[in-house]
Each structure stands twice: as C-alpha cells, then as structure tokens.
Amino acid sequence: MATSLKIDDALKGRVQQLASQRRRSAHWIMLEAIQQYVEREEARESFTQEALNAWESYKETGRHLTGVEVGDWLKSWGTDEERPVPECHD
C-alpha cells in the first residue's frame, strides 16, 4: 500500500538531518517513527481496556486488593521471601 505523507519543510529538514547522522534513509526514519508511535498507542489502548475491564469486574463483584496489599507483595519481589499474588477479597 503506497501512502504519501506531507510534512512541513522544517520537519523534513530535521528528518533528513537525523537520517544523515544515523546513516539511514529519511524513509527509514519516518517508518521507524510511525511504527514506534503505533506500538505505543496500541499498548496504551490495551492498558486502558484492561483498566476498564478491571473496573467493571470490581463493580460487579466487589473483589479487590488494597494498595497496601499490593505494595507488600511488590516489595517481596526479588527477595528470598517472594510472595505469590495475594487473593482478592470483598
């Protein structure tokens, strides 16, 4: 799929400068930037959906962990006394 992209002269110059410094083509720089943006936004959307799903689950069941419970669990990571994920409760 061929797509054209119109950018202003200032941004075009910056892309060309960066491409020259990195010994890459301007096309490569722009494609890399677009790929990274799309991946970041997809991850952000996934995180948002996961949070909304968790909120809906909480509203339906009332099951949860407190901030202290999560904090204590996280503090155990990487120690000899690493704990399993705490059980949710009402």
Give a structural overview.
By secondary structure, this protein is mainly alpha-helical. 66% of the residues lie in helices and 0% in strands. It has three helices and no strands. It has helices at residues 9-22, 26-61, 67-75. The chain is elongated. The chain starts with 8 loop residues before the first helix and ends in a 15-residue tail after the last helix. The model has no long low-confidence stretch (mean pLDDT 96).
Helix and strand content put the structural class at: mainly alpha
Beta-strand portion reads under 5%
Helicity level: 55-70%
The largest sheet, given as strand count, sense and whether it forms a barrel, is: none
Give me some keywords for this one:
90 residues, mainly alpha, 3 helices, 66% helix, 0% strand
Lay out the secondary structure.
Elements: H1 9-22, H2 26-61, H3 67-75
State the gist of this model.
The protein has 90 residues and is mainly alpha-helical. It has helices at residues 9-22, 26-61, 67-75. The relative contact order is 0.07.
